[in-house]
Structure formats: C-alpha cells, structure tokens
Specification:
The chain has 185 residues and is mainly α. Helix content is 76%, strand content 0%. The protein has one domain. α1 packs across α2 and α3 runs parallel beside α6.
Length: 185
C-alpha cells in the first residue's frame, strides 16, 4: 500500500509545478519549507503552553491569563503562515466528486477558474488584513485581556500569510497559462 504520491508512482503536483515555474517559484517553495518548519515548531510550542496552563490550573490552582491568548496567536499564525505551502500541494479541502465526472480538459479549466476566484478572494483578504494591521499599529491596539499583547502581532501574521497565499495562487495561475500556451498542451 502506497502512503504518498511518490510511492504510488504518481508525480506530486508540487514537483511538476516547481519544474515548470523556474527559479522564482523554487525560491518561494524554499521559503514555504522554512515557514512550514517554523509553523510546526509553533504548533508544538502552543501545545506545550496549553498543557502548562492546564497543569498549573488543575494541580497548582494558579491562573495563567496569558496562555490562552499565546496559544491562539501561535495557532492562528501557524495556520495563516503555512497556508501557501498547503496550497502549493493543492492540499486544501476540495470537492473531488465533481472532478471525477469531468474530462481532463474541462477539469483544467475548472481549476483555472477556481484559482482566479481564490486569488481574488485571497488578495482582497490580504488587503483588508493589511488595513487592519495598519490600524492596529497607528492606534496602538492591544487585546482586552489582562496580559494585553499588541494586536499588530496576530494581524501581521494574518497579513503575511494571506499575502503568501495570494502569491502562491498567482504562481499557479501563471503556470496554468504557460502550460495552456505551450505546444505540448
């Protein structure tokens, strides 16, 4: 039983795209790999912070105000920052029932239009996140908890993650356009 695309003899989408996209995409893929590693460490750290909070509350009857917010910042940052790497492998949730009914050519067009819509949404989300980040910096917003960390921290992670995701989807659109114009397509 094969547990990966490579073991099954199927080329992964990320590998074929990397070859077709060239140097800028390889650099972006390298950045994604670094971000995934950092995000993985942040998720482990969030689990440790949550565990610490549970243990100190249950056994020591000591309140930790900061641990909930810290773990949310770490988890949200990990999710947003690693979203481009997940998209590079087309690992986000998709409905596969429709694609099985369509021909390869129609399926390519479906993916192309989905990528256009996804890019429009992600670019808008990125822009709105940047506006929120700017407002948090200018107005010096802090959370309402007793710990009161500045809100530019999660907003910057959200903005960076959505910008990276927008760039990733834009790469996919450009690659699909290049493939459709190539003589082999």
């Amino acid at each position: 039983m094969a547990h990966s695309l490579e073991e099954a003899g199927i080329e992964s989408p990320a590998a074929s795209v990397t070859e077709a996209a060239g140097f800028p995409y390889r650099m972006f893929a390298g950045l994604n790999n670094i971000i995934v590693t950092v995000s993985s460490v942040a998720l482990v750290f969030a689990a440790l912070v949550l565990t610490y909070g549970v243990v100190t509350r249950y056994f020591l009857h000591f309140s930790t105000d900061w641990q909930d917010e810290m773990s949310v910042f770490l988890i949200v940052g990990s999710i947003f920052m690693s979203s481009a790497a997940v998209q590079a492998r087309r690992g986000h949730v998709a409905i596969e029932a429709v694609s099985a009914l369509l021909s390869d050519n129609v399926n390519r067009w479906r993916l192309f239009f989905v990528d256009i819509a996804t890019f429009a949404f992600c670019a808008f989300f990125s822009w709105k996140s940047a506006r929120l980040l700017e407002e948090a910096i200018v107005e010096n917003f802090h959370s309402s908890s007793t710990w009161q960390p500045p809100l530019w921290i999660p907003y910057s992670l959200m903005t960076a993650g959505m910008t990276l995701l927008s760039i990733q989807v834009l790469f996919q659109i450009v690659i699909q356009l290049r493939r459709s114009r190539s003589p082999a397509a």
